[in-house]
Amino acid sequence: MSLPNPGGRLRLDKAVCLRSGCKINVHLEITGFLPHGRHSIYTHMLPLDEPHDEILLRPLDAFEQGINPSDGPKCLTFFDQEGIDPLNNTMTVAHALLARKFPALPDIAVELHKEVPLGAGLGGGSANAAALLLFLNDFIQKHGYNDLPRHELLKIAAQVGADVPFFILNLPAEASGTGTTLKPNPAVSARFAGMHLVLICPGVHVSTAW
User: What pTM was computed for the model?
Assistant: First the structure.
């Protein structure tokens, strides 16, 4: 792929606000254990619009570029909750992986307002990363680049985290393997047609690895 402006960098000219939802597993089986502490699963997942996080994207200013002294495109994140590393999280990883494909990716600051509880199994961090990947892929296309086809975007998403590909599709789906092998299945949500969902999240943080 040739760059329209070799050596140049795209710029985000104005702030953009994104929303990212979450998911529930209406069925979940642990089907095996894998190296490095991972496990294989079989699950049915449903995307939820609520609760949702708000993601504000804006250009990095000169001071913030000094905070994140990377050589390539920069992504600096700010959170309204403690417990998330501002330099190493799902969105910074997603931005860095996409920058390998598109070195002209813009430098961005990300301000995240969390409403999806942390450590609740709802995939909030994965949904954040997917929202960022989808926006940047669309941003690239609008500025004259060849955006990534969906299957390539899903590959990058899988490197960020197991649930990120699900949020790229954002459809009811069966998932297997480490959770990245997806089979969209409308019947998953059809089983619950006409029902209401009450989502109760106690203030307990559970590590997925644990």
Answer: 0.89
